[in-house]
Design goal:
single chain; 150 residues; mainly alpha; 2 helices; 0% strand; Remorin_C; Remorin C-terminal domain-containing protein; Remorin_N
Length: 150
């Protein structure tokens, strides 16, 4: 038999053992941290299409210039209000017409369903009448046969 050799292999742990964090906290000094300064980049507004209304400065001048500015502002506000009112009126009109159309369609569907019911009922009544007629004919035939025999 062969002799077996025993080899000693040292295995390193997968996770190195670290000293406890409590000990490190005690040794570290507290140093204030300054906030990093961020550079602000200029914004490129060449492609933006936002409309910015500039407030009209009220001048203390007396005369027609100040009055014209105020009248122009009032007329612009009046036109804006009329446009908004017109949009609301159109939206209201569209809502009412669409609701009336939906009501009309539902009523049409109800009538069509009722007509189908009526047609079906009439058809069934005709079939029942035909069955009664055939039954009466058979009764009459059997009665005639019985009378002929006696």
């Amino acid at each position: 038999m062969a002799t077996e050799e025993v080899k000693k292999v040292e295995v390193e742990p997968e996770c190195p053992v670290e000293p406890s964090p409590v000990a490190e906290v005690e040794e570290k000094a507290i140093v204030p941290v300054e906030n990093p300064v961020t550079e602000e980049k200029p914004v490129d507004d060449t492609n933006s299409f936002a409309i910015i209304e500039k407030p009209i400065e009220d001048k203390t001048e007396e005369g027609s210039v100040h009055r014209e500015v105020v009248l122009a502002r009032v007329s612009i506000e009046k036109k804006d209000a009329q446009i908004k009112h017109g949009k609301k009126a159109r939206n209201q009109k569209q809502r009412t017409t669409s609701s009336i159309g939906a009501w009309e369609n539902s009523k049409k569907a109800d009538l069509e369903a009722e007509q189908k019911k009526i047609k079906y009922i009439e058809k069934m009544k005709n079939q029942i009448a035909l069955l009664h007629k055939n039954a009466e004919e058979k009764r009459a035939m059997t009665k005639a046969k019985v009378e002929k025999l006696f």
